[in-house]
Design goal:
The structure is a single chain. By secondary structure, the protein is of the alpha/beta class. The chain folds into 2 domains: 35-343, P-loop containing nucleotide triphosphate hydrolases (Rossmann fold, 3-Layer(aba) Sandwich), CATH 3.40.50.300; 346-411. It contains 9 helices and 9 strands. The strands form 2 sheets. Strands 2-3-1-4-5-6 form a 6-stranded mixed sheet, sandwiched between helices. Residues 44-322 form the Septin-type G domain. Residues 16-28 have a biased composition (Pro residues). Residues 349-409 form a coiled coil.
Length: 411
């Protein structure tokens, strides 16, 4: 048999067209929200309230002027070693507007002259604590008003506590004050006049302060740290910077308002000694640049947000819960919670309060005197009218008798 093989005709297959690249849809525009927020914040500006606390003579005024590179407060010329010490702690408020690259920052600096200057400093921290609590209370009351468009905010965003460079450790007043302030605001400890200590002494002093802070469970403000960050990312650099700031606490700072030539043709802010210059913005000499970066450049928003979300909310929660605790609370870690607003122990406020009370008392006495005089005049007028009425009545009786007499004569 012959096998027949079928032959199939091969046809050429057409080439397969390459798939078209997917078209990318145009952006919706939500990515522009940060730019909108930036524009709004740039136009509105910002608020920052900072409290400086510590003994007199530690350079608080000089530090504030050096920090903002302008003279916010002049040194008190009457304060010297021969002037009498203040028996009470005052609270002074310095307000200023700083503008940089078309951005305005409204700064409030709270100074506390007279703190820790006396032999008996019992409850010297009370005016500071009262001021912070009063500002929380004032802001909470403004939020409870029907119209809240304009609110005056003096809540303290950062407390810079200046420590005397003794080289030994913290004094009891420092520990107690820092305990109470740390629960109400962002506390940042500072070693003042760090150029009075040698490098080994400063290192030992910092170590002792850290040990006391940890043992006494004093909460200080630390930059936020996260572990889930890639090593080559820009956030890793920020985290490394935050670790360096934490390792530098408490910050050893030097303040100066004078500039000198550093020998290389550059004028620097420094303190001049016979043996050379101590530069304020030199990291090898002090931690001023690190502290300024923490306060104004890197973590300013964190300080404001932490005040709003942690310290103010804690105070608001305790106030709304109510309670009978007073300023003598045995637990200094809790803010004062009282159903009514307490009076400040600031002598300035006390003087104003006493003057208002005296004025009110004098006004009440004057009104009472006027009322008594008016009452006496009414009594006198009533007596006079009664006398006139009796006289008229007697005349009427006489006339009636005369009328009767005439009528009898006619009969």
């Amino acid at each position: 048999m012959v096998e027949l093989k079928s032959r199939t005709k091969k046809t050429a297959t057409p080439p397969v067209a390459a798939p078209e690249p997917p078209t990318v849809p145009p952006p919706v525009g939500i990515a522009n929200l940060p730019n909108q927020r930036y524009k709004i914040v740039s136009e509105q500006g910002g608020y920052f309230t900072m409290m400086v606390a510590g003994e007199s003579g530690l350079g608080k005024t000089t530090f504030v002027n050096t920090l903002f590179q302008t003279t916010l407060k002049h040194a008190d010329p009457q304060r010297n070693r021969f002037s009498p010490l203040k028996k009470t702690v005052d609270v002074d408020i310095i307000r200023a507007e700083l503008e940089e690259k078309n951005f305005t920052l409204r700064v409030n600096v709270i100074d506390t002259p007279g703190f820790g200057d006396n032999v008996n400093n019992n409850k010297a921290w009370q005016p500071l604590v009262d001021f912070i609590d009063d500002q929380h209370d004032s802001y909470m009351r403004q939020e409870q008003q029907p119209y809240r468009k304009v609110k005056f905010d003096l809540r303290v965003h950062a407390v810079l506590y200046f420590i005397k460079p003794t080289g030994h450790g913290l004094k009891p007043i420092d520990i107690e004050t820092m305990k109470r302030l740390s629960t109400r605001a962002n506390l940042i400890p500072i070693i003042a006049k760090a150029d009075t200590l040698t490098a080994p002494e400063l290192k030992t002093f910092k170590s002792r302060i850290r040990q006391v802070i940890e043992a006494q469970e004093i909460r200080i403000f630390t930059p936020p740290l996260t572990n889930d960050i890639k090593e080559d990312s820009t956030e890793a650099v920020a985290m490394e910077h935050a670790r360096q700031l934490i390792e530098s606490m408490p910050f050893a700072i030097i303040g100066s308002e004078n500039t000198y030539d550093n020998g290389q043709g550059t004028n620097v802010v420094a303190r001049k000694y016979p043996w050379g210059l101590v530069e304020v913005e030199n990291d090898a000499h002090c931690d001023f640049r690190k502290l300024r970066g923490l306060l104004l450049r890197t973590y300013l928003l964190d300080l404001i947000t932490n005040t709003e979300q942690l310290h103010y909310e804690t105070y608001r929660k305790l106030r709304l819960e109510g309670g009978s605790a007073t300023g003598d609370n045995d637990d200094p870690s809790l803010p004062v919670k009282a159903p009514a607003r307490k009076l400040s122990h600031n002598p300035k406020y006390k003087e104003e309060e006493n003057a208002l009370k005296k004025y009110f008392t004098d006004q009440v006495k004057a009104e009472e005197q006027r009322f008594r005089q008016w009452e006496q005049n009414i009594v006198n007028e009533r007596t006079r009218l009664n006398g006139d009425l009796e006289e008229i009545q007697s005349k009427v009786k006489k006339l009636e008798e005369q009328v009767r007499t005439l009528q009898l004569k006619k009969r």
